[in-house]
């Protein structure tokens, strides 16, 4: 028998293996001159053993942990591997599971195998015994809904903005932009590169931001939220930034959320934030993720996988994209990304995952969304229980950020009422002015809008 054959057993199924293994579904293309079946045997061998040659150090205990390829479809490239639970890494600290160890096995050195032209992880399934070794979110969107005085199980869209321009504004201008948005909306989030730049040092910006928030709360009589970015390289520096924010917002800590990049700073940064700041909502950003998750990329792992991992790590919310309705890559069929993090049992592209009561993560919807694009996005998703984080859609409204915020709220209302957008615009001036603000979108989404709204 060829050595690679030891790692293939096509008589097994998801059901046979699910309880004792992590199951992983890949799309794989062998390199030229390599046969599909032999390659998947080598892929499975490399996944579990870190080599493809027979070893003199092998023993029965190690062999019991072989990774097995149990499904192979040369026509589609689908390969499913089963990873025995004994392969996975657990913390000395508290016995919890580690995503770094998980990724090392599922998308580690196998990504660079010479026998493989392309291999991408599209889905995985965890059995209860392993899933429950992850912490999951401590704080959920219910905390924001409670703070905003809404229903805590389905409180509707949290109208949020990402501060734009993303760099260059001085502390006073940032705080003023946030204040203006809060007069019409709920939440303001730092953009991902906003940190401690010389033109806007955190020590100056954060107290001004806290003051703006209180002012907006006083004037509107509504609760407001600020999500501060604490992404950086060093956990000690993250802690320092978090402490500074907590001190600036000490009068109303309920209004403070934190924001960490789960891709650039990685799982350790997200885990650190989730553990240290467990009473706060932690948003997971993912700037740069398309370098590996893009649907056009045939290596790495998908956005679906990245998002599912964020729930395991404990993100209260994670950017899920706009499913083709915004300006970033995406597709209507990406809906399962948002469902997987927000339901107790959900179907992914290849596996159905039971979360066994793990807290849910909220979708954070961002990337080119404005009042005109929002209703079709909502129609595709089917609900509005998420956090909207609009940049240009908020600060690009021709009447300013307050009107931008109101136009987004009105867009949700328009969809909830199933109203005709032109009729709705007649009584909702901020929504109506969104047509003029985003004319290029209006021309595509609502041809004829100029005549209908008297703008001809
Ligand atoms: C949006 C944004 C968001 C990305 C995130 C940006 O601004 O601030 O970070 O959309 O994408 O810089 O692009 P706009 P994703 O609203 O002005 O587009 O959620 O897909 O990770």
Structure, explained:
This protein is an alpha/beta fold. Helices cover 38% and strands 17% of the residues. The protein has 2 domains: 3-131, RuBisCO large subunit, N-terminal domain (Alpha-Beta Plaits, 2-Layer Sandwich); 141-450, Ribulose bisphosphate carboxylase, large subunit, C-terminal domain (TIM Barrel, Alpha-Beta Barrel), CATH 3.20.20. It is built from 20 helices and 15 strands. The strands form 3 sheets. It has an 8-stranded parallel β-barrel, surrounded by 8 helices. A 5-stranded mixed beta sheet has the order 2-3-1-4-10. A two-stranded antiparallel ribbon has the order 12-13. Strand 6, helix 8 (202-220) and strand 7 (225-229) form a beta-alpha-beta unit. Helix 17 packs across helix 18. The longest helix has 19 residues, at 202-220. The mean pLDDT is 96. Bound molecules: 2-carboxyarabinitol-1,5-diphosphate. 2-carboxyarabinitol-1,5-diphosphate binds next to helix 15. The site of 2-carboxyarabinitol-1,5-diphosphate (CAP) has 18 residues, from helix 15.
Number of domains: 2
CATH superfamily of the largest domain: Ribulose bisphosphate carboxylase, large subunit, C-terminal domain
- Spans with pLDDT under 50 lasting ≥5 residues? none
Oligomer description: single chain
Mean pLDDT: 96
Q: Tally the helices: what do you get?
A: 20
The largest sheet, given as strand count, sense and whether it forms a barrel, is: 8 strands, parallel, barrel
Percent strand equals: 15-25%
CATH topology of the largest domain: TIM Barrel
Query: What's the CATH architecture name of the largest domain?
Result: Alpha-Beta Barrel
Helix content: 25-40%
Helix/strand-derived class? alpha/beta
How far from one another are the termini?
77 Å
Q: Going across the biggest sheet, name each strand in turn.
A: 5-6-7-8-9-11-14-15
CATH class category label of the largest domain: Alpha Beta
**Cα radius of gyration in angstroms:** 24 Å
């Amino acid at each position: 028998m060829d050595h690679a054959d030891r790692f293939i057993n096509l008589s097994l199924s998801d059901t046979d293996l699910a309880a004792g293994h992590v199951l992983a579904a890949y799309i794989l293309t062998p390199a030229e001159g390599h046969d599909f079946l032999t390659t998947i045997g080598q892929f499975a061998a490399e996944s579990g053993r870190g080599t493809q040659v027979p070893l003199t150090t092998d023993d029965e205990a190690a062999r019991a942990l072989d990774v097995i390829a149990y499904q192979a479809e040369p026509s589609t490239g689908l390969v499913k591997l089963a990873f025995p639970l004994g392969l996975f890494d657990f913390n000395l600290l508290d016995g919890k599971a580690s995503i770094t160890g998980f990724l090392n096995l599922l998308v580690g050195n196998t990504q660079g195998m010479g026998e493989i032209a392309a291999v991408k992880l599209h889905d995985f399934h965890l059995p209860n015994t392993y899933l429950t070794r992850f912490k999951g979110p401590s704080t959920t969107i219910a905390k924001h809904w409670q703070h905003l005085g809404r229903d805590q199980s389905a409180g509707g869209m949290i109208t949020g903005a990402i501060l734009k321009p993303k760099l260059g504004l001085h502390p006073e201008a940032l705080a003023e932009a946030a204040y203006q948005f809060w007069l019409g909306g709920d939440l303001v989030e730092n953009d991902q590169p906003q940190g401690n730049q010389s033109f806007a040092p955190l020590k100056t910006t954060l107290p001004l931001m806290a003051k703006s928030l209180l002012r907006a709360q006083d004037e509107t009589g509504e609760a407001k939220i600020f999500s501060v970015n604490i992404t950086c390289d060093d956990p000690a520096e993250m802690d320092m930034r978090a402490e500074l924010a907590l001190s600036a917002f000490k009068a109303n800590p309920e209004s403070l959320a934190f924001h960490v990049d789960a891709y650039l700073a990685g799982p350790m940064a997200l885990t650190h934030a989730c553990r240290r700041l467990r009473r706060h909502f932690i948003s997971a950003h993912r700037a740069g993720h398309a370098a590996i998750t893009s649907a056009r990329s045939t290596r790495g792992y998908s956005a679906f996988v990245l998002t599912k991992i964020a729930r395991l790590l404990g993100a209260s919310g994670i950017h899920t994209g706009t499913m083709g309705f915004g300006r970033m890559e995406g597709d209507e069929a990406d809906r399962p990304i948002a469902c997987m993090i927000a339901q107790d049992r959900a179907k992914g592209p290849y596996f159905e995952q039971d979360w066994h009561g793990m807290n849910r993560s909220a979708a954070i919807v961002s990337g080119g969304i404005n009042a005109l694009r929002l209703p079709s996005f909502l129609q595709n998703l089917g609900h509005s229980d998420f956090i909207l984080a609009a940049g240009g859609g908020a600060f690009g409204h021709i009447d300013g950020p307050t009107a931008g915020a109101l136009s987004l709220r009105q867009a949700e209302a328009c969809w909830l009422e199933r109203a005709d957008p032109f009729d709705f615009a007649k009584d909702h001036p901020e929504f109506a002015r969104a047509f003029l603000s985003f004319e290029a979108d209006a021309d595509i989404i609502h041809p004829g809008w100029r005549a209908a709204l008297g703008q001809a």
